[in-house]
Design brief:
The chain is mainly alpha-helical. A two-stranded parallel ribbon has the order 1-2. It has one domain. The model has no long low-confidence stretch (mean pLDDT 86).
C-alpha cells in the first residue's frame, strides 16, 4: 500500500483522491497509469496529468450490459474492499478519528501480507 486517505463522507471522491495523490507526487517514479471508476472523472483526470504526470483512466461499465459483470481493473478495488470487510473492526465505522480508521486499515493489510508470507503447512 503506497497511500491511504480516509475522509468524511461529505468530501467528494475526486477531492479525496487529491488528498491521497498529492503526498505521492515524485515518490513513485515507475507509476504511469491509474485506473478509477466514474466517480473520479471530470477535472481530476486533467489534475492528475498536470500535477502528477500520470494518466488517470476511467474504467466504466458497459451501459449495454445487464446484471452483474466483472469490469476489468475495477474488480481489484472491490476485492480489496472485500478483504478489509473480513476484519471485524472494519466491518462498520466504529472509529471516532480518521487517523484511527487509517491505522486499522493499515493493520488489516499488514495482517493480510503476513499471512501470505507464512510458509505453507
Amino acid at each position: 500500500m503506497h497511500g491511504l486517505a480516509v475522509h468524511p463522507a461529505n468530501v467528494q471522491d475526486r477531492d479525496g483522491a487529491k488528498l491521497l495523490l498529492e503526498p505521492l507526487i515524485g515518490k513513485l517514479p515507475r507509476l504511469e497509469r491509474l485506473w478509477a471508476d466514474g466517480g473520479y472523472g471530470g477535472h481530476l483526470v486533467e489534475w492528475v496529468a498536470e500535477h502528477c504526470g500520470w494518466t488517470l483512466e476511467i474504467v466504466s461499465k458497459d451501459p449495454a450490459t445487464t446484471g452483474f459483470r466483472v469490469v476489468p481493473k475495477r474488480w481489484i478495488v472491490e476485492r480489496t474492499f472485500s478483504w478489509l470487510g473480513k476484519c471485524r473492526r472494519l466491518s462498520k465505522d466504529y472509529e471516532h478519528l480518521v487517523t484511527s480508521s487509517e491505522a486499522m486499515i493499515r493493520l488489516a493489510m499488514i495482517g493480510l501480507m503476513v499471512r501470505r508470507l507464512r510458509p505453507a503447512s
